[in-house]
Amino acid sequence: MTAAGSARKRHSLVGRPVVITGAASGIGRALATRLSRLGSPVALADVDADGLKATAAALHGRVLTRVLDVRDAEDQLRFAAEVRDWLPAPLAAVFNNAGVAVTSSVLDAVAEDDDWLHDINFHGVVHGTRAFLPILVEQGEGAIVNTSSVFGLLGMPNQSAYCAAKFAVRGFTESLRQELHGSAVRAITVHPGGITTNIARNARVRRDPAGLGRSREEMAAQFEAMTMTSPDKAAAIIHAGVDRGKARILVGPDAYLFDALARITPTHYNAVLSRVMRRPRRKEAVR
Length: 287
Fold this sequence. Notes:
Elements: H1 3-11, E1 18-21, H2 26-37, E2 42-46, H3 49-57, E3 63-67, H4 73-86, E4 93-96, E5 102-103, H5 111-139, E6 142-147, H6 160-179, E7 185-192, E8 204-205, H7 216-226, H8 231-243, E9 248-251, H9 253-264, H10 269-277
Parallel strand pairs: 1-2, 1-4, 2-3, 4-6, 5-8, 6-7, 7-9
């Protein structure tokens, strides 16, 4: 076996236990469905009890479910203790995936909304990492997989809170990666582009920041019209990236565009993106 083949075998998630937060819908549900189908025991958490129950009901393998608010550091520690007792084998990966959105200009931002987002999108990731990292370090292997975003690569108008949290996830995880260098425990960042989920429909929006009078539903529909990747496809890309030993996983063709623009034109990318985003999009087939 080649060195690359050996690494893929060592990192493979198939049949190995995983933890997934934000598992009630979107990428989290798609990851749970995919990995459970491939034989992985899955420990699932979400604040949405009904959605979590629906995800678990669709699975056929071993499942642990926990209603969890990722903002609660102590409850994350309790969840990690429950998972430790439940584990049928060493833990392969922890997907800190839960996330929410806020749409507002900086001028009109409401501190309560920004704090809500930061507590979930950044502090939730930190709490999950701190809760589960000791398990991975003790067993001497595994992966912390933290969901950032393409908005963790470039700053976008009317997304200051979201970008700030996702840039923070990126920085936190990259710092952790350096601390883990030389060990078999990995820290991975995931940068999804536009994924067709409910995040925009569940976002906090006080008013249309563009001044066009659009409702939250109208803005969500416009976002969904521009998305390029299904949750199932996103889950497949993330799974493949973890198995291949990647440290950073770009999800969707738009993620590669964002990454390229961050390198080529780090201060003038918005003009390019504005032109690209006005073009009609061809949705990918779900595979």
